[in-house]
Amino acid sequence: MHPEIQEFIKENTGADITKLALQKNPFPEMDWILILNQIEARSKAKEKLPTWFTAENIIYPSKISVEQTSSEKTATYKASLISGESLIDLTGGFGVDDYYFSKKFKSITHCEINEQLSETVAHNFKQLQVENCTFYAGDSMHLLEEIKQKYDWIYIDPSRRNDSKGKVFMLKDCLPNVPELLDFYFEKSDSILIKTAPLLDISAGLSELKNVKNIHVIALENEVKELLFEIHKEYSGKITLKTANILKEKTETFEFILGEESFPIYNLPQQYLYEPNSAIMKSGGFDEISTAFQINKLHKHSHLYTSEDLIDFPGRKFEIQKVISYHKNEMKNELANKQANITTRNFPETVENIRKKWKIKNGGNLYCFFTTDVKDNKIVLICTKII
Length: 387
Prior knowledge:
By secondary structure, the protein is α/β, with parallel strands linked by helices. The chain folds into 3 domains: 3-64, Orthogonal Bundle (Arc Repressor Mutant, subunit A); 69-257, Rossmann fold (3-Layer(aba) Sandwich); 265-386. The protein has 15 helices and 19 strands. The protein has helices at 3-11, 17-21, 32-48, 50-54, 63-68, 72-79, 96-101, 115-127, 140-146, 178-188, 202-208, 278-283, 286-293, 328-334, 351-358, and strands spanning 84-89, 105-112, 133-137, 153-156, 159-160, 174-175, 191-196, 212-220, 223-232, 240-246, 251-257, 265-266, 272-276, 296-297, 305-307, 315-325, 341-345, 366-372, 378-386. Strands 3-2-1-4-7-9-8-10-11 form a 9-stranded mixed β-sheet, with helices on both faces. The chain has an 8-stranded mixed β-sheet with strand order 12-14-15-13-16-19-18-17. Strands 5-6 form a two-stranded antiparallel ribbon. The model has no long low-confidence stretch (mean pLDDT 94).
């Protein structure tokens, strides 16, 4: 908190840490590694956490903690989903979510097992002028067992255990073990919001949880960042799957009832091509998007859509310039030794193999989709992107 050290951290934000580490510490009374960590973490926060970045006297945790925390954009969206008198966050972390929850609730309780991180967040919230948040440094289970208060909402962001390996994981492999503790949590609140990494399979999450009302898939700039399972005590109705892709100038949303039968329509490529955003792709609502927008699917497993007239669509839009069969002569005439952006959907070859085989350079204004049509033919759609 020394003003001259804070100034040094600001001046060197974005600097090459490796080069900086070789310099002599200008503040010998202070741990040089600690200062370097602040510079590196602040650099990471510039785009992700602009409110923290522009505030005075902010203390940062490790660079990894900054990387793992919610971005302000996803936290803002999350806070728009719930509200009430009181919320307890059982896994508070750096507190980005709680900063935005504090604008929607009268009181927030931030629980963090790491005492130093808890103190850091408490300090930062003072700098950010958040006055309705209390801090508990310790295991949130102990707090819940001790108090008699009921909360409007419990918020949990379970972390994967270190011994949990492989790409597929379950909520029971996380800390806290939410499926095991769910009945206990329901004694403390009727409404629970669980954040998980996008790695979690939605059906796997549903197999472990009960009373799920809504599932939210949140993407930022077309990259899925988190899943949210919204559960309510005693709820047993239909589950709504809600997707949001947060872009610079707008948020693309789409929702559907999980398990309700849809009747997609199929056709050969028409004038326009549509690729759903990553949140919709994660949701698995491939038939539902065809039904909702009344556009044709190219194939049951291709997850590309087409129409004769251009529509407003939650994803990328293209105008099809040419459709060719994936045969040697046509590929030689149209794409070999040229430049194009390549995407494969329901196609037996990888992008890397296609580039190598036909000597296609990356980039340019052409967008080529290698896919399978409704007649099971391997085709290439040569398109231009619609901004």
